[in-house]
Amino acid sequence: MFLGGVEIIAIIGVVVWLTRRSRSKKAEASSTPESDVVHAWLRRWQSANLISDEEVAAIISFEEAARRDAASTSTSGAERKMPLVAEALGYLGGAFAAVGVILLAARYWPDLATGWRIGIPVAVAVAGVAGGALLDEHTDDALRRLR
Asked: Does the model's pTM come out above 0.70?
């Protein structure tokens, strides 16, 4: 029923392996810079007299500025603020904490007065909604998934 130490270590190992595997696949997929593709299209369109030299220069400067802006504001998979392992362990810890709280509440629930039986679930719901509202999901994709 409960996970032992060996199972938890195995889960962590699988998560680490999957993280490294996905990062290497992303690095292989991005081996051809998109700027080369854009330049090839622009040269092809220019040779077909679809766009002028001035338009090619304007498009290249616009795309380079956009790429610089995106690089300074966004995070790639390798630059995640919260590693995938930390996110997985956070979910696992949250699940253990939730089970512990449920077991504790189940033990003392019959002894609680009616006001406490109503107040505790309401307080948990309000805390969850407030925590989700205060969470800045634009900081990292993991925080967006938590919301």
From this structure: no
Q: What's the CA gap between 13 and 21, in Å, rounded?
A: 12
Residue 145 — φ and ψ, nearest 5°?
A: -70, -30
* Per-residue pLDDT tens over the stretch 4-54: 666 777 777 777 777 666 655 555 555 446 677 878 888 888 888 888 888
Residue matched to tokens 């002028």: 52
**Contact between residue 83 and residue 69 where contact means Cβ atoms under 8 Å apart:** no
- Of 35, 37, 56, nearest to 46 (Cα)? 56
The number of angstroms, rounded, from the C-alpha of 84 to the middle of its chain's C-alpha atoms is 8
b/e code 34-50 from CB counts within 10 Å (16+ = b): eeeeeeeebeeeeeeee
CA 57 – CA 60 distance, rounded (Å) = 5
List the structure tokens of 86. Answer: 């930390």
Taking CA atoms, 42 is separated from 12, 38, 53, 99, in Å, by 47, 6, 10, 58
Predicted confidence (pLDDT) per residue in 67-85, tens digit = 777 766 655 555 556 677 7
Residues 73 and 66 sit within 8 Å (Cβ to Cβ): no
